[in-house]
Amino acid sequence: MIYKQIIFDIDDTIIDFANTEYVALNSLFKFHGWNITPEIRKNYHAYNQGLWRLHEQGKLTYEELSEICFRDFIKREYDIDVNGKQIMAEYRHYFGNTHKLIPGAKEALQYFKNQGYYLAALSNGETFMQKKRLKLAHVAQYFDLIITSQEAQASKPNPAIFDYFFSRSKVSVNQSLLFGDGLSSDILGATNYGLDCVWFNHCHRKNLLRLTPLLEVDTYSDFIKYCKNH
Question: What is the pTM (predicted TM-score) of this model?
Answer without folding.
Answer: 0.92
